[in-house]
């Protein structure tokens, strides 16, 4: 009971220290609010009200079809311009795209030649330019093809395949971006907060006070693990409910409680990693460098950014030793596909084993550093 009391009181002390650290509080709020929102909406899937200026040198039926094909809500009504207005308009940010249809465009099409249409893109407007150029190419190709066929219509093959998308029928990328950002932020902040908590003890000189008290390194470590893990778990839960579900209107298919349980096991492993880094680093800048060296590979190679199936087999096998791999798998299974405990229990077991190993290694390193 005395040990449990020490762990509880030390954990409360860590929560109070975090409360008086505005930089870390701002990092938590920014990551789980602004970071999640920007990941979901930063890169649009389609252009929206993109401005376009058109130089139509041909003034033919074919060129008119192309110009009239740019419609709302993807593009604003095309503005007729001349060559002097093209560069000036893009420099001033008036047009995101400019289109130059050359003279004799229709004549070359009917003669079987391949005339070139010039498309200029203002790449400083990244969100529109990223997808808009592809849409313009598709629009021009479709209109030219229908013009050469002399009719509008859709050819129906004798045998067609109809694809139905499960879990994300419209392939909305914001669903994937927002939830994945929450998953990645859980890993990042748990490592940062626990490592910073240990370094803060050294910088403030309170570590010496703890050493002269009847407190064991085990109690010091567990107090930091449960307190910082609780902060990240609560922040992630609030972000999933208010930002992902309420604000972004992204549906959660699986059990929210099961996801939080899996996140708690993952936090057991990542907070132990943070303690280990805190024993290696002697200052916050050193801790930041250590986290950069390991956090980015963990997030990229664990399947949080690209599917693990696209990676070499050797990398897939090596990353099975990382807790992030199993956490990403169980999180995506629960939140995207509505998986139950009977499906994700192997990942939960792996997180328990990996977390226990990391905890023992970090505790051994903490005892050596305190001695």
Please describe the topology of this protein.
Elements: H1 2-19, H2 22-41, E1 52-56, H3 61-68, E2 79-80, H4 83-91, E3 97-101, H5 105-110, E4 118-121, H6 126-149, H7 173-204, H8 206-211, H9 217-247, H10 256-280, H11 284-301, H12 313-318, H13 323-337, H14 341-370
Parallel strand pairs: 1-2, 1-3
Antiparallel strand pairs: 3-4
Helix pairs in contact: 1-9, 2-7, 2-9, 7-9, 7-10, 7-11, 7-13, 9-10, 10-13, 10-14, 13-14
Describe this structure in words.
It is built from 14 helices and four strands. α1 crosses α9, α2 packs parallel to α9 and α9 crosses α10. The radius of gyration is 28 Å and the shape is elongated. It has a four-stranded mixed beta sheet, with helices on both faces. The chain has 371 residues and is mainly alpha-helical. It folds into two domains: 240 residues, no CATH class; 98 residues, abc type-2 transporter like fold (3-Layer(aba) Sandwich), CATH 3.40.1710.
